[in-house]
Amino acid sequence: MDEKELDSLIKLLDDPDSEVFQHVEQKLITMGPEVITRLESAWEQSFDVMLQTRIENLIHKIQFEDVLQELELWKISGSFDLLQGLIIVNKYQYPDMNEQKVINQIEAIKRDAWLEMIYSMSAVEKVRLLNNIIYNAHGFSGNTSNYHDPQNSYIGQVLETRRGSPILLACVYSIVAQKLDIPIYGVNLPKHFILAYTEDHTPVADKNGILFYINAFNRGQIFGRHDVIAFLKQLNLAPSDNFVLPCTNLDIIIRVLRNLTSSYSQAGNAAKTEEINRMIDLLA
């Protein structure tokens, strides 16, 4: 990166000619996150409200493009790491997040469960242990009082507040379980995201390969296939494999993003709704 060229471009950000500004803005966006520190410095040294606003918007655009690139790379590399996908989504709202802190918080929950895990435990006993660690020891619960708050969909906020949506609580639960070699995977049930405990360590299971289901939003309640079928009947939906079998990490992140579009749309935030839709389009 040529620092003289960068300084020259930043000085042109207050140009009254919109065409000049758009050209400069596009050039700075292509330079990537490396220019953000210099832009922040220019913002601090300026007393021009218009210039400060332009810099703020430019920094957001650069950070958003960076999120899109990370999301695309996560997808094409196989989307194997669900936690990494959630961290990328978190960066959309919190670009300066401490990624290692999130990883450490998950590891702390896993460690507490591992210390009490006994190899000979049955599937139900393992779930009861996870429930005790996640809901009692660490205090996680569903955010019923502010269900549509977009913060419920950001992993950093959920780990900090211990409150979240059904899908984010299910993500925390399944990530911890899989780190302990417990085969628990997400199920894309309409209106309510749940988990499935499978017979083997692969998310690809048939209906006979699921031992039972878990409701992470309701403190890890265990229930059976017949309960899922009954719920689908209430929604006038047929029990297709898409609704009763484990889904992919890609499906999970797309659903997290759709929850966010719903939250921002209800809040009347058209700009964020449009940006999240771009993220969905990239994955879908």
From TrEMBL:
Biological classification of the source: Bacteria, Pseudomonadati, Bacteroidota, Sphingobacteriia, Sphingobacteriales
Residues annotated as signal peptide: none
Source species: Parapedobacter indicus
Similarity comment: family membership: Belongs to the UPF0162 family.
Residues of the Protein SirB1 N-terminal domain: 101-258
Name listed for the protein in its UniProt record: Transglutaminase-like superfamily protein
Pfam families: Transglut_core2
